[in-house]
C-alpha cells in the first residue's frame, strides 16, 4: 500500500478571504485588474506623488495577483509599503505587509513573513482595524501549521476567531473554521477536523460562497482520502473542481489535481496518477510553491518506485527531502523519508530502507501525527522482516494495525454521515424557503397590481358603467388566481411535511447501515490485516516454521474473537429484519447461565478474576433462548474486560413477584461514572479499552438492549468508579398450565 501524506491543504491561496478583500480594508472599489495595472503604471511612470487612492489600488492589485502570480503579488505589495512609508499612510503599510508576508511564507521565507506580520499587527491594533488584524492572525496560523507548530497555529487562529465572531464577518468565519480544521487534520484528529470543516461549509453554502465551498469540499475530500474511502473522496474533489472551473485560481486547481493524483496512487493506478501530479507540478514550479514542490516530488517518486523505475524514483525523493530539510517543513521531511524507505523496500535494499524509516519515524513521533506514525510503522515492519528481525517486524505490524484502527474510528464515520445529512437537509430547506419567498413576492406583486386597478376603476366607474362590468370580470379572475395560489401554498406545505417524514425514515435506515459498516470496518480489519501480514511473511520465505508456529496462537485468538463477534452480529442483524420471527419458547435459565459461565472460566482465570454462578436449579423462563444466551455472553465478557487480578464476577438469577425472571451480572471491577453509564444504551458508540487494553466495538450493549426488549424484558445498569458494575435484566417467567398447578 503506497504511503499517504498528511499536510496542510494549500487552498488558503485565496488570501484568507480577508486578504482577498484588501479593497474593503482600504475603502476602495474593485475595478478590473488590467485597468488598475494600467492606471498605476501611468502614475508611477509620470513620477506623480503617491496618494492613498493609488496605494489602495496597488495593494488591491497585489491581493488579486496572488492566486495566479505570487511574484507579481510580492512586487506590488512591496511597492505599496514603500509608497505608504513616504507619506506616513499607516493602513497602506499594514495592508502591503500583509501581502508580502503571505507571499514570503508561501515561498518558504518564514522569518521574513513573521517580521511582516508582526509589524502589520502592531499597526492594525493601533488603527483598531479588526478585519486586518484578523487576516494577520489567520496568516500566522497557516504559516505555523506548515511548520508543524500546532500549538502556536491554534493560538493565532483562535484569536482571529474571537475577532470574526465579534464583528460577525461570516465570510471570514467560514475561512477561520476551515483553517482550524486544517490544524486538527494535520495532527490526525479527523473527528475534530470534520467539526470545523462542516461549520465553515454550512456558512459557505448558506451564503453561496463558491470559492470557500470549493476549498472546504477539497478539505473534506482529504479526510475521506485519509480514511481510504477513495470513491467518496474523488466525488468531493470533483465538486471542488466544478466550483473552481473558469476561475484563475491556479493554485487551488493544482492542489485538487494533486489530491486526485494521490488517490490514484493509493489505488495503484500509477500512470493516471502521474498525469495529474505532473500538471500540478508545473503550476508549483511556476509559482515557487515550496510546500507543493516537496509533496509532489515525493508523490511522483512513489509512482516511479512502484513502476520499478528505481533511479528516477530515488532522484525525485532525494529532491523532496533536500527542499523540505532546507525550509524546515517537518511534514514534508517525514513524508519524503518514509517515501525513500518505501522505495528501498521495493528494491529489497533493507539496510537503506531501515535508515530512512527510522528517521521518518522519529519525525512522526515529534509531530504526534497518527497517520505518519502508521506509515512509518508499516515500512519498518517490512524493512525488519527483510533483515530477518521477525519479532520486531511483527510488533511494528501490530502497531500499524492499531494506529490504522484508531484513525478509522467510528466517531469520524458517524460525524461525516451526520454532517452530510445536515448539509443536505439545510440545502433542501434553503431551496424551499427560496421558492416560498418567490411565491410570496409574486403574490405581493399581484396584490399591488390589483390595488392600482381598483383605484382606476373607482374613478372611471363614475363615468362609464361598461367599465364596471370589466372591473367585475377582472375581480373574478383575480379571485381564481388567489385560490390557485392558496392551493399551491397548501401543496408546498404538504410536500414539506412529506419530505420531513421521508427524511426521518431515511435517517433511521442510514443509522443502522452506518452502525454495521463502522463495526465491520473497525473490528474485522485488524485480525484480517494481521493474518495477511503473516501470510506475506510466509510467502517471502522470511520466517521459519517454528517462528510461524509461535505466531499462530495470537492470530488464532484474534480470529476466535472475530468469529464470536460475527456470530453475535449476524444474529442481531437477522433480528432487525422485518421477516425475523422470535423463537419464544420455554428454556432453562440455569442451563444457559451455567454454559456461558463455564465457557468464560479460562478467560477469567487468565486475568486472575473469580467467576461464580449462583443461579438456582430449575429456574425456567419464556423467551428466545438464543437471544438471552447472547445477552449473558456479552455481559460476562464485558465484566471480564473491565476487571483485573483479585476481582470477582457473580451471576445470579431469581424469580420476582412481578412474574419476571431477574438475571444479575455483578463485578468488582473499575466501574464507571454516572455519565458513562447513562450513555451505554444510547446510539452513540463510546467504547473504552479494558484493563489489559482489550478492544471493543461499543455496540455489544446496544445489541443486548435490543434483544432483551424483543423478548418483552428490560435492562439497566448501576455502577460506581473503583467499586464495580451491576447489569440487571428481566424476562418473563415460565407460567405453568392451570392443570399442572392443581396437581402440584
UniProtKB/TrEMBL annotation:
Q: Where are the transmembrane segments?
A: 453-472
Species this protein is from: Mucilaginibacter psychrotolerans
Instruction: Tell me where the signal peptide lies.
Output: 1-26
What PROSITE patterns does the entry give?
Answer: HIS_KIN, TPR
Q: Where is the Histidine kinase domain?
A: 519-735
Keywords, A to Z, come to: Kinase, Membrane, Phosphoprotein, Signal, TPR repeat, Transferase, Transmembrane, Transmembrane helix, Two-component regulatory system
The record ties this protein, via InterPro entries, to: HATPase_C_sf, HATPase_dom, His_kinase_dom, HisK_dim/P_dom, HisK_dim/P_sf, Sensor_HK_Regulatory, Sig_transdc_His_kin-like_C, TPR-like_helical_dom_sf
Check the record and name the SUPFAM superfamilies matching this protein. ATPase domain of HSP90 chaperone/DNA topoisomerase II/histidine kinase, Homodimeric domain of signal transducing histidine kinase, TPR-like
State whether keyword Transferase applies.
Answer: yes
Residues in coiled coil: none
Q: What is its EC number?
A: 2.7.13.3
Protein's name according to its UniProt entry: histidine kinase
EC top class, as a word: transferase
The TPR repeat units are at 134-167, 174-207, 214-247
Amino acid at each position: 500500500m503506497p504511503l499517504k501524506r498528511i499536510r496542510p491543504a494549500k487552498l488558503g491561496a485565496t488570501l484568507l478571504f480577508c486578504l482577498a478583500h484588501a479593497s474593503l480594508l482600504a475603502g476602495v472599489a474593485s475595478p478590473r485588474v488590467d485597468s488598475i495595472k494600467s492606471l498605476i503604471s501611468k502614475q508611477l511612470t509620470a513620477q506623480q506623488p503617491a496618494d492613498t487612492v493609488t496605494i489602495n489600488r496597488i495593494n488591491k492589485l497585489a491581493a488579486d495577483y496572488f492566486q495566479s502570480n505570487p511574484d507579481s503579488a510580492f512586487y506590488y505589495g512591496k511597492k505599496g509599503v514603500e509608497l505608504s512609508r513616504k507619506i506616513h499612510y499607516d493602513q497602506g503599510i499594514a495592508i502591503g505587509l500583509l501581502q508580502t508576508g503571505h507571499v514570503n511564507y508561501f515561498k518558504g521565507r518564514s522569518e521574513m513573513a513573521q517580521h511582516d506580520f508582526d509589524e502589520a499587527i502592531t499597526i492594525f491594533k493601533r488603527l483598531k482595524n479588526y478585519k486586518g488584524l484578523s487576516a494577520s492572525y489567520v496568516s500566522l496560523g497557516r504559516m505555523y501549521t506548515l511548520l508543524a507548530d500546532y500549538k502556536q497555529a491554534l493560538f493565532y487562529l483562535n484569536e482571529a476567531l474571537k475577532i470574526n465572531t465579534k464583528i460577525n464577518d461570516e465570510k471570514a468565519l467560514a475561512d477561520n473554521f476551515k483553517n482550524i480544521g486544517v490544524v486538527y487534520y494535520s495532527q490526525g484528529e479527523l473527528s475534530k477536523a470534520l467539526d470545523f470543516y462542516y461549520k465553515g461549509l454550512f456558512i459557505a453554502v448558506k451564503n453561496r460562497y463558491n470559492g470557500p465551498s470549493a476549498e472546504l469540499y477539497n478539505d473534506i475530500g482529504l479526510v475521506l482520502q485519509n480514511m481510504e474511502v477513495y470513491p467518496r473522496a474523488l466525488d468531493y474533489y470533483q465538486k471542488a473542481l466544478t466550483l473552481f472551473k473558469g476561475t484563475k485560481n491556479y493554485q487551488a486547481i493544482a492542489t485538487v489535481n494533486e489530491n486526485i493524483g494521490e488517490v490514484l496512487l493509493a489505488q495503484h493506478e500509477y500512470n493516471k496518477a502521474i498525469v495529474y501530479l505532473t500538471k500540478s507540478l508545473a503550476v508549483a514550479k511556476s509559482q515557487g510553491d515550496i510546500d507543493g514542490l516537496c509533496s509532489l516530488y515525493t508523490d511522483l517518486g512513489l509512482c516511479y518506485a512502484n513502476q520499478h523505475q528505481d533511479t528516477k524514483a530515488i532522484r525525485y525523493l532525494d529532491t523532496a527531502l533536500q527542499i523540505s530539510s532546507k525550509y524546515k517543513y517537518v511534514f514534508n521531511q517525514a513524508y519524503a523519508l518514509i517515501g525513500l524507505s518505501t522505495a528501498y523496500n521495493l528494491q529489497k535494499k533493507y539496510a537503506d530502507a531501515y535508515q530512512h524509516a527510522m528517521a521518518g519515524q522519529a519525525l512522526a513521533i515529534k509531530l504526534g501525527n497518527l497517520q505518519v506514525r502508521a506509515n512509518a510503522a508499516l515500512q519498518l515492519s517490512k524493512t525488519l522482516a527483510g533483515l530477518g528481525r521477525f519479532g520486531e517486524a511483527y510488533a511494528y505490524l501490530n502497531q500499524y494495525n492499531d494506529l490504522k484502527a484508531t484513525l478509522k474510528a467510528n466517531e469520524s464515520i458517524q460525524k461525516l454521515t451526520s454532517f452530510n445529512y445536515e448539509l443536505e437537509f439545510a440545502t433542501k430547506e434553503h431551496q424551499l424557503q427560496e421558492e416560498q419567498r418567490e411565491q410570496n413576492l409574486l403574490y405581493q406583486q399581484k396584490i399591488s397590481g390589483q390595488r392600482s386597478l381598483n383605484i382606476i376603476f373607482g374613478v372611471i366607474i363614475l363615468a362609464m358603467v361598461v367599465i364596471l362590468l370589466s372591473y367585475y370580470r377582472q375581480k373574478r379572475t383575480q379571485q381564481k388566481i388567489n385560490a390557485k395560489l392558496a392551493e399551491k401554498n397548501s401543496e408546498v406545505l404538504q410536500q414539506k411535511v412529506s419530505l420531513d417524514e421521508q427524511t426521518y425514515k431515511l435517517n433511521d435506515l442510514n443509522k443502522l447501515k452506518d452502525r454495521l459498516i463502522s463495526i465491520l470496518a473497525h473490528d474485522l480489519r485488524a485480525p484480517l490485516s494481521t493474518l495477511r501480514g503473516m501470510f506475506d511473511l510466509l510467502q517471502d520465505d522470511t520466517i521459519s516454521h517454528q517462528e510461524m508456529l509461535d505466531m499462530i496462537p495470537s492470530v488464532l485468538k484474534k480470529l476466535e474473537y472475530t468469529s464470536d463477534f460475527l456470530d453475535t452480529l449476524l444474529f442481531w442483524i437477522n433480528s432487525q429484519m422485518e421477516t425475523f420471527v422470535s423463537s419464544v419458547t420455554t428454556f432453562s435459565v440455569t442451563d444457559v447461565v451455567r454454559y456461558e459461565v463455564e465457557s468464560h472460566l479460562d478467560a477469567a482465570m487468565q486475568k486472575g478474576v473469580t467467576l461464580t454462578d449462583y443461579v438456582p436449579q430449575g429456574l425456567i423462563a419464556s423467551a428466545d433462548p438464543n437471544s438471552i444466551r447472547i445477552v449473558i455472553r456479552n455481559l460476562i465478557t464485558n465484566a471480564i474486560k473491565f476487571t483485573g487480578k483479585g476481582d470477582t464476577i457473580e451471576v445470579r438469577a431469581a424469580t420476582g413477584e412481578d412474574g419476571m425472571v431477574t438475571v444479575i451480572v455483578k463485578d468488582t471491577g473499575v466501574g464507571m461514572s454516572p455519565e458513562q453509564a447513562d450513555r451505554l444504551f444510547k446510539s452513540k458508540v463510546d467504547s473504552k479499552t479494558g484493563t489489559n487494553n482489550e478492544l471493543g466495538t461499543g455496540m455489544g450493549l446496544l445489541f443486548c438492549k435490543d434483544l432483551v426488549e424483543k423478548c418483552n424484558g428490560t435492562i439497566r445498569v448501576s455502577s460506581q468508579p473503583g467499586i464495580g458494575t451491576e447489569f440487571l435484566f428481566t424476562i418473563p417467567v415460565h407460567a405453568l398450565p392451570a392443570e399442572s398447578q392443581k396437581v402440584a
